[in-house]
Amino acid sequence: MDRFAKTKLAGILGIVGNIFLLIIKGIIGLLTNSQAMIADAANSAGDIFASFMTFIGNKIASEPEDDTHNMGHGKAEYIFSMFISLSMMVIALKLLYDSIMSLINKDTFEFSWFLVIVCIITILVKLSLFLFTNKLSKEFDNLLLDANKKDHRNDCVITTFTLISILLSLANIYWFDSVVGIGISIWIFYSGLQIFIESFNVLMDKSINEEDKNKIIKIIKKYPKILKYNHLNTSPVGYKYLVSITIFVDGTLSTFESHSIADNLEKELNSLPFVYLSIIHVNPMEMDSKEDK
Questions:
Q1: Which residues, at least 6 apart from 132, have a Cβ–Cβ distance to it below 8 Å?
Q2: Given a cut of 70, is residue 293 above it in pLDDT?
Q3: What is the rounded distance in angstroms from the CA atom of residue 76 to the CA atom of residue 58?
Q4: Which of 8, 23, 130, 275 has the fewest CB within 10 Å, making it most exposed?
Q5: H or E stretch at 62
Q6: DSSP 205
Q7: Cβ of 12: how many Cβ atoms within 10 Å?
Q8: Checking DSSP bridges between strand 275-285 and strand 240-250, what pairing results, if any?
Q9: Looking at domain 210-289, does it have CATH number 3.40.50.720?
């Protein structure tokens, strides 16, 4: 299976798993009036939307380049990741309000072992989804997968605290339930904000990171006949980058030889996993005007 097929599978599994969790969390949360469990159920509803956005965004991003989209449709991953982040932040604000009101009103809930069972089931399901998406995110550089991985990981932690709040109710400690609801909402908002910033940076054509930029420079410096380079510009194309560079070579070289240097450099740069396409512009240069690179 390729990158897009595996991302599609991750989206489908996320949708199915989160629908199941939403149903059992919602029913038990409403029956017992547990604010933490209701917050957890709302989080699962957001997870369904996130998984659905992963599925749709991945489908669009997998489409090849065409006459109207010459660089493909890869940025769809970041557009739909932004949708996910916005939905997470909206849900978080609503949960924050409800949890604060519950704390002020000193609401209580009815303890049930079904609450404990639902928490354990949730942790097992989310841990399985996390391990699967974590494996894929290491294999592919995909913000949609990374967002889902973080979401599954966060849910494991969140539900663990929900379980603690439920067990504390046995000692008539109910305030912790609302505090956990507040903590969950803050965590969801922060996670959504991180995804939003990362998506925004790519959509605003943020340049490549310093580590990968240095890899490009290292390759350029392997060519002794490249006297100088400038205008090293990068622009994101989906999960890869378009790289353009101007190189300067000895003006006495033949056109064939100077372009051979550029062709070889392009081939080497295009082999990098983060490079979508490299464009090299060649300028002649007088040897006595050579400057430091």
A1: 10, 13
A2: no
A3: 7
A4: 23
A5: none
A6: T
A7: 14
A8: parallel
A9: no
Q: Model confidence over 126-172: pLDDT tens digits?
A: 899 899 888 887 777 666 777 778 778 877 877 887 788 788 888 88
Copy the structure tokens of residue 158.
């969140």
Nearest to 84 by CA among 233, 192, 179, 157: 192
In 3D space, the residue among 46, 55, 43 whose CA is nearest the CA of residue 13 turns out to be 55
Residue 233 φ/ψ, nearest 5 degrees: -115, 145
Structure tokens at 32: 């017992």
Give the start-to-end residue ranges of the domains of the chain.
3-203, 210-289
Tokens, residue 123: 């942790």
> Do the beta carbons of residue 96 and residue 189 sit within 8 Å?
yes
CATH architecture of 3-203: Up-down Bundle (1.20)
Q: pLDDT by residue (tens digit) across 70-118?
A: 666 777 777 887 887 887 788 788 778 877 887 888 777 677 888 889 8
The tokens for 45 are 């509803």
- Say what the pTM is: 0.62
Q: How confident is the model at residue 238 (pLDDT cuts 50, 70, 90)?
A: low
Distance CA 258, CA 255 (A): 5
